[in-house]
Amino acid sequence: MSALWSPYDPVMDTEASPLTPFGPDLWLVDGDRIRMLGIPFDTRMTVARLPDGGLWLHSPVAPTPDRVAAVQSLGPVRHIVAPNKFHNLFVAPWFEQAPDALRWGEPALIARRPDLGLTPLEGEAPGAWGGAIAQTRFEGSNVLPELVFLHRPSRALIVTDILQSHDPARESAFWRGLKHLNGILAPDCGAPRDWRLTVRDKDAARASVEAILAWDFDRVVLSHGICVPEGGKAVFERAFDWLRR
Known about the structure:
4-stranded mixed sheet
């Protein structure tokens, strides 16, 4: 097993998009289409510019020359964030592109990949982020806890795997059907039903939902699927109604 092991099996997509603005000081970078356990996923990196001009990268995608040049045109990369234990495939390659950047990760990933040299993100967001980004850990899953972020200037919630909305136009009939059954095919935007089965501590998960709903956000950035440009708080609340049953 190599040092860059990941459950993702990359499938290269030569039509990856460049930077897309998604609010003040916030951009999206669409990555390659990958497979996890044979299931195809579109991927996305989020780039935020902090008050000091440095960049904050969430869930890095493959650092192709075009993507690196586009990101660097916005400013120096100062923070690289791996938000859960599955989103680590391209973390180390971005470290090579930005060797001075601070490296942050979700604690379960750090336990799994100590070789990445990540600093754990727990409690309040680091002061180095200039107050522009808030964070919380979505608790309750015994398999996949996840760090969730709020980019305050753009009022954008940033999630990774706990909320998805896959584009039907990108899927075959087979995968459209399967993703519809899993509750993650657009226009639906939901918590994957297979992930829900791993949420054993519903009290902790409900507390996480309430903490997130207390934030001031309207947009939602998804790592997998179609992002929500407005009305995101209602979408998020509806996606987690199952916790109230």
